Amino acid sequence: MPITTEQSSHAGSPPALHQPIHAALQQHYETLRDVHLRELFAADPARFEHFSLQVGDIFLDYSKNRITDTTLQLLMQLAETADVAGWRERMFQGDTINNTEHRAVLHTALRNRSNTPVLVDGENVMPAVNAVIAQMSAFAERVRSGTWTGYTGKPIVDVVNVGIGGSDLGPHMVYQALKAYRHPRLNMHYVSNVDGAHIVEKLESLDPETTLFIVASKTFTTQETMTNAHHARHWFLQHAADDAHIAKHFVAVSTNREAVMGFGIDPENMFGFWDWVGGRYSLWSAIGLSVVLAVGAENFIALLDGAHAMDQHFRDAPLECNMPVILALLGVWYSNYFGAESQVILPYDHYLRSLPLYLQQADMESNGKSVDRDGNAVDYATGPIIWGTSGINGQHAFYQLIHQGTRLIPADFIISVTPPTDLHAQHDILMANFLAQTEALMRGRTLQETRDGGVTPPYAPKVFAGNHPSNALLLTALTPHTLGMLIALYEHKIFVQGIVWNLNSYDQWGVELGKQLAKCIQPELNAAEPVTTHDASTNGLINRYRQQRAQ
Ligand code: F6P
After folding, report:
1. How far apart are CA 426 and CA 443, in angstroms?
2. 342-347 and 411-416: which strand pairing?
3. Is the CB of 360 under 6 A from ligand 1?
4. In sequence order, what are the beta bridge partners of 344?
5. How far apart are CA 138 and CA 293, in angstroms?
6. Residue 228, Cβ neighbours under 10 Å: how many?
7. Of the residues 1, 131, 311, 534, which has the fewest C-beta atoms closer than 10 A?
8. What positions does UniProt annotate as the active site of this protein (predicted)?
9. Ligand 1 pocket residue status of 170, Cβ below 6 Å
């Protein structure tokens, strides 16, 4: 029995992919689908200059995409049809574009370093944003200088961020990325998994006298985070014995003041943010506290500055030379015309190794939707599967499938020009591999080249079709500023795609169902009688677990 959605006919204005521009793109796709990138390069010696763009410290080469000028013109028309520029303005000015949660979407206000007023319900949010940055900076200064001490008077050495999803992935990724900027005494740790192994293993090596916990949760109700936070408090009190000491060792980052107080954290030690900051867009808010502690307020502000620079570029640059818009439309081109199902993110940078994980949430939780913002079921592909890992490691793991598998997998290659260490020769090896892979994916190897190249038969498995698209992103260096730009680039790419697909990219109702069911099932695991209320599989698994656990 198929599960049907409430709506059948289209309410609201038709999405761009239902408009004549879609047919024009489909027709254009038919003319380009069998054209090889080799031919496109041969036809235009200036293709690299033509299809590349520098914005601040980020250079984008998008010439190895299966596009021509006409493709881009048509894609730009698609963006215009979807009113990307209008929606972009609505987002920046604080309109309620998250229509199912009735919220503005203003992570850009958190890094609005120009400090121009941003109004939510008629009130300028910038004074409150700046006040939290000042509060975080002052607190970080005390911890970093050692004037904030634990209950026995020792300076803090370890900081544990207890959070999950957007309250973990963003700060964790940035902490890793900015290793070069870290305070020498302070170590950050990130605990997210409710599997007790995560927190138990972490606490084994920590000293309660010198450990600070940041309980990071927008809602302060997330089961995983609250369970771990309670365990951390229990562990701490086993050593410190007195509730009064909690104030020196637990701080909270949340929008929920009552719940923070209910947990026993002094509201003085709470760093607030607002419901117009989505969880997966929150690293710029107080959720970034662990980053501020690790790299200092100055570097955190440089991160915000970088994101703001990308915000300004996104807001002001014409669509055809707008980096997030170009990346977004290329993604749409592959998803909706070539039928690509995924997008791989390949940082050739040890310190950016968690970027794919971060972007998985940012992109898939935002655009993993099959109902549009008007409540209609969509009949076109939306958000792709985002995956990836450190590129050089991926080469020895899954690149085979990208090169010779049956699927088209657009790839983003990311590298810094400046090496993170003085091992310059090693950086050249990394760069050579980065370049070799994008070239090999693009060119492939013909049968003739295989024969001529001294390869031994059989030839067929050694021939590569090529024609695999990729973007190359060259960062001048991995600094807080460039990192801020890079993250904001992807955020805006996701935004633009959401607009083209007519989605609300800022809710996540799908995640809620699993949370509700888990809450129902949890007491059943300890019920007196066998469980019969679910389907046979779920009943069977619950009862088997109960039986085996009892043995
Ligand atoms: O996974 C669902 C989600 O709501 C994410 O959007 C969010 O980042 C995460 O849970 C954590 O939520 P919170 O910060 O409220 O604990």
Report:
1. 25
2. parallel
3. no
4. 387, 411
5. 10
6. 26
7. 1
8. 365, 396, 515
9. no
Give the atom of ligand 1 at the shortest distance from the alpha carbon of 167.
14
Look up 365 and say whether it is catalytic: yes
What element of type H or E holds 414?
A: strand 411-416
Q: Is 102 a catalytic residue?
A: no
Give me the average pLDDT of each 10-residue run along the chain (551 residues). Answer: 48 88 98 98 98 98 98 98 98 97 98 98 97 98 98 98 98 98 98 98 98 97 97 97 95 96 94 97 98 98 98 98 99 98 98 98 98 97 98 96 97 97 96 98 96 94 96 98 99 98 96 89 93 96 91 63
Closest CA to 300 of 311, 312, 287, 313: 287
Distance between start and end Cα atoms, the chain: 39
Q: Which residue has a Cα nearest atom 1 of ligand 1?
A: 165
Contact 182, 295 (CB under 8 A): yes
Which of 473, 416, 415 is closest to 64 using CA atoms?
Answer: 473
Q: How many angstroms from the chain centroid is the CA of residue 271?
A: 22
Active-site residue flag, 515: yes
User: For 476, how many CA atoms within 13 A lie in the half-sphere containing its CB?
Assistant: 11
φ/ψ of residue 434, rounded to 5: -55, -50
Ligand 1 centroid from CA 170, angstroms: 12
Tokens 């927008």 locate to: 218
Catalytic residue, from 268, 396, 424, 529: name it. 396
- CA angle, corner 297, sides to 296 and 303, nearest 5? 100
Q: Distance between CA atoms of 290 and 283, rounded to whole angstroms?
A: 10
